[in-house]
């Protein structure tokens, strides 16, 4: 149940971004959109930075295991095929997150 609530909050944030409502999507607005209390949103994401980190973690998890921030140039080059394939698999989500 906890993981499901966390995912619902992140999905609501992604939907808000897709609708161009990123700036207005406060913790209060997310709580209302998801149907949970304000305290619940703050429990999972104490501030906007944690919310955005959670969103990026969700996006990269959906993109696949080979996607993530490389530690060096060799890792960047070796991950490129997996990264592009992963991003292609979630193209609409990537377009929203990069805009």
Short description:
The protein is mostly helical.
Which ranges are low-confidence, i.e. pLDDT below 50, for 5 or more consecutive residues? none
Overall mean confidence score, pLDDT = 88
The proportion of residues in beta strands is under 5%
Give the CA-based shape. elongated
String of helices and strands: HHHHHH
The secondary-structure class comes to mainly alpha
Count of discrete alpha- or pi-helical segments spanning 4 or more residues: 6
How much helicity do the residues have? over 70%
What about the largest sheet?
none
Query: How many angstroms does the end-to-end distance come to?
Result: 31 Å
Radius of gyration from CA coordinates: 15 Å
Q: What is the number of strand segments?
A: 0
Description of the molecule:
- This protein has helices at residues 2-18, 27-34, 38-44, 48-63, 73-89, 91-98.
- With 99 residues, it is mainly α.
- The longest helix has 17 residues, at 2-18.
- The N and C termini lie far apart (31 Å).
- The model has no long low-confidence stretch (mean pLDDT 88).
